[in-house]
Amino acid sequence: MMNRISSISFMSKIIDSHAHVGRHDGNNYNKNDLDIFVKSTLPNKDTVEKFIVSDLDVLHSSKGEYEGNKAAAELFKNNDKFALLASCSPKDGDVKNIKKLFKENPDTFMGLKFHSDIQQLDLSNKKYELYMEFAAKNNLPCLFHSQVNTLPDGKVNQSVKHIADPENIYSLAKKYPKTPVVMAHLGAGWREAHDKAIDILIESIKKGDANLYADISWVDIDEPQEHIVKAIKRLKGIGEKDWRFCDQSFRLMFGSDAPLARFKGNDALNIYTDFIERIKSSIKNDKDLKSDANSIIDDLFYNNAKKLYLTNKKKSDFSKNKILIASAVIVFASLIGAFVKRANRAQNTAKK
């Protein structure tokens, strides 16, 4: 286990915006692996209020798009510690499955999740556009695995085809400029990868041609959190030339990828807490951020994810239809009641 560098806590509330259940890399991750983080306070007294979860079996195509998401919905039913993203499988699925899922479960899924690296389906493929059109129509945020396709020396990584490069995500997001698109892992990997993702995030804001966000799952997990701090500072406009926009740091949010890899096992709780404390410490000790550290931390760990995924969202057509139907029933019942009362009064008057 990494030695904890401090005991920094505001007894904060946390929304972890990136978590999973299902099979990945030969391991099976289930609800019990996430429960350990939410059943009590963390060792530093912070509390994980909610995980935003997606199903890996759908992404790996080991379960059907509808069946896998439906099973996840049942798994977390009536549990306010978890919210779901519908995992999408454009490679062998159909957006009709997702439409059916949302129609039958109008208040269950908060957005969509894509992993083009697992699916090895290029993001320029027209199949993605069918899902994105559905997301745009229903104001749904879309979380994309992101991973830079070049090595630190600038050469293309030939061993793995990372088609989830932030450049490719940005190109797709520009077709739906109002739809929130989240780049998971801030580009993933090393220094140059995170720098590239941050550059693209800033470029999209300055040009106003896409609605990009990012989460910080796995970013600098074993190192000083320089890229997390760098992303916050640049989103706040610190050191940016020709910055013409207000604070955009709401576009960055905490995530862990729990319970994958080291976030599962006997020491998972301490490793998770250590990651949180390192991030807090980096923010509190930075000369440009320390004066506003408490609010920055609250936003990064809680408010930003809450606003994007859980609040201030236009009701989907399915939810609106549900409300309209309920309202119509109430109005109809009221009219019937009024009619019956008038009929009874007329009948009593006639008797007199």
Largest sheet: 9 strands, mixed
Q: What fraction of residues sit in β-strands?
A: 5-15%
Regarding quaternary structure, what we see is single chain
Number of strands: 9
The SSE order reads EEHEHHEHEHHEHEHEHEHHH
Inertia-based shape? globular
- Arrangement of strands in the largest sheet: 2-1-3-4-5-6-7-8-9
Q: With helices defined by DSSP (H or I, 4 residues minimum), what is the helix count?
A: 12
Structural class: alpha/beta
Low-confidence stretches: 1-7, 319-333
The CATH topology of the largest domain is TIM Barrel
Per CATH, the superfamily of the largest domain is Metal-dependent hydrolases
Mean pLDDT: 87
CATH architecture of the largest domain: Alpha-Beta Barrel
The termini sit apart by 89 Å
Provide the helix percentage. Answer: 40-55%
Description:
The radius of gyration is 23 Å and the shape is globular. The longest helix has 35 residues, at 317-351. The model is unreliable at 1-7 and 319-333 (pLDDT under 50). It is 44% helix and 15% strand. The protein is of the alpha/beta class and 352 residues long. It is built from twelve helices and nine strands. It has two domains: 13-313, Metal-dependent hydrolases (TIM Barrel), CATH 3.20.20; 315-352. Helix 3 runs parallel beside helix 4 and helix 8 runs parallel beside helix 9. A nine-stranded mixed beta sheet has the order 2-1-3-4-5-6-7-8-9, with helices on both faces.
